[in-house]
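Quick review question:
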């Protein structure tokens, strides 16, 4: 099976390509490299002995996409490409809506031109906003998002749902990721944020490796056991396996399929720091700072639906997430 992977050079896309190849699925990668490096392709090749087809270009360029579709018998698309920094989305809403929403619409048009009717979309737990209860099931209310990034994900979900209502021979899969962290166990592939990391795990890793002095812990007065924010961190290799499961189980069946991809476990900021200290043997100096605007106290996934319908369940624990992140960061202190 050949699968077009938009954003396949990025953090989650690259790990997913590795697991796809291991499962005998051929990725065809499209990426404009706005947030990734060509070196990723070499790393994928070194790990798998396969150099996937790679097209450098923008998903908003319909003629470019038509050309890629014309060159391969593509059965499905996994759509990772997009911008993902919450703070930047507040400063640059136009860029975010153009890239994430318009980009997805152009991609859908190119798919329709090519007769490819199966898409797996990278959505996010952010569409649930501040949940009224945890664990969050797929039926929980969506749409109360607090920033342009989150709204762009919700908009694409809405566009895809409307599209499915009109064209029910399509297979549309919305995967709502919780908090992806970790790296390939080889230490050769991992997350490589440009500029100061926005997310907890890469920030901790950069403090541990000496690139940054101190971690800011955003709030210790939440109604959680230790007062710091609680999230459902999921190892990127588990997330990658979740995509392979989606390709096998639902991406060939028409329908609108929605799944949480999380572990079902909550971990606080302080617990994550402790796990990282244990895994790395490094000190992580931190200071308690005010809450970050827009943050919620806690969230974690109900994983029942994915287990039942995809036959998939995350298996890697927080210890493994910290160990693999440290392996990657210590081997690649400056990233790729
Ligand atoms: P990433 O930035 O590492 O990967 C995205 C890739 O898409 C990059 O390689 C970038 O160069 C490419 N890209 C961006 N705009 C493009 C365009 N217009 N045309 C072609 N390529 C383009 O991000 P990631 O962490 O791998 O996330 C992948 C997807 O998952 C994103 O859609 C993101 O919003 C979503 N997601 C990520 C997280 C997370 O915490 N990492 C959580 C939930 C959802
Ligand atoms: N966080 C923190 N310091 C940081 C980055 C994040 O204390 O430098 C906290 C944040 O407040 C939240 C948790 O870590 O409670 C996860 O934040 P992240 O940005 O990684 O993910 P998201 O906010 O998308 O869940």
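Suggested answer, residue by residue:
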């Amino acid at each position: 099976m050949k699968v077009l992977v938009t954003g396949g050079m990025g953090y989650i896309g690259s790990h997913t390509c590795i697991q796809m190849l291991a499962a005998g699925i051929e990725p065809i990668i499209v990426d404009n490299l706005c947030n990734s490096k060509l070196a990723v392709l070499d790393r994928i090749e070194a790990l798998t002995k396969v150099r996937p087809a790679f097209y450098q270009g923008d998903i908003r360029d319909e003629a470019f996409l038509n050309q890629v579709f014309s060159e391969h018998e593509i059965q499905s698309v996994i759509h990772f490409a997009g911008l993902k920094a919450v703070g930047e989305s507040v400063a640059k809403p136009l860029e975010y809506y153009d890239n994430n929403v318009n980009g997805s619409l152009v991609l859908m048009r190119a798919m329709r031109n090519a007769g490819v009717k199966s898409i797996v979309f990278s959505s996010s737990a952010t569409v649930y906003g501040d949940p009224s209860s945890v664990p969050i099931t797929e039926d929980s209310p969506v749409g109360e998002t607090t920033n342009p990034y989150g709204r762009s994900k919700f908009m694409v979900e809405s566009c895809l749902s409307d599209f499915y209502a009109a064209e029910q021979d399509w297979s549309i899969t919305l995967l709502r990721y919780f908090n992806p962290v970790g790296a390939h166990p080889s230490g050769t592939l991992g997350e490589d944020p440009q500029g100061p990391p926005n997310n907890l795990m890469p920030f901790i890793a950069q403090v541990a490796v000496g690139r940054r002095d101190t971690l800011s812990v955003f709030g210790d007065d939440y109604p959680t056991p230790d007062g710091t924010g609680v999230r459902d961190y999921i190892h990127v290799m588990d997330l990658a396996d979740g995509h392979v499961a989606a390709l096998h189980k639902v991406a060939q069946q028409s329908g609108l399929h929605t799944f949480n991809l999380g572990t079902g476990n909550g971990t606080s900021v302080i617990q994550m720091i402790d796990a990282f200290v244990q895994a790395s043997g490094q000190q992580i100096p931190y200071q308690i700072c005010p809450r970050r605007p827009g943050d919620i106290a806690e969230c974690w996934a109900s994983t029942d639906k994915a287990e039942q319908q995809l036959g998939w369940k995350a298996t890697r624990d927080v210890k493994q997430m910290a160990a693999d992140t440290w392996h990657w960061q210590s081997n690649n202190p400056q990233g790729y």
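Why it works: Residues 179, 198-200, 203, 215-218, 229, 231, 269, 292, 295 surround uridine-5'-diphosphate (ligand 2) (CB under 6 Å). The chain has a mean pLDDT of 97.
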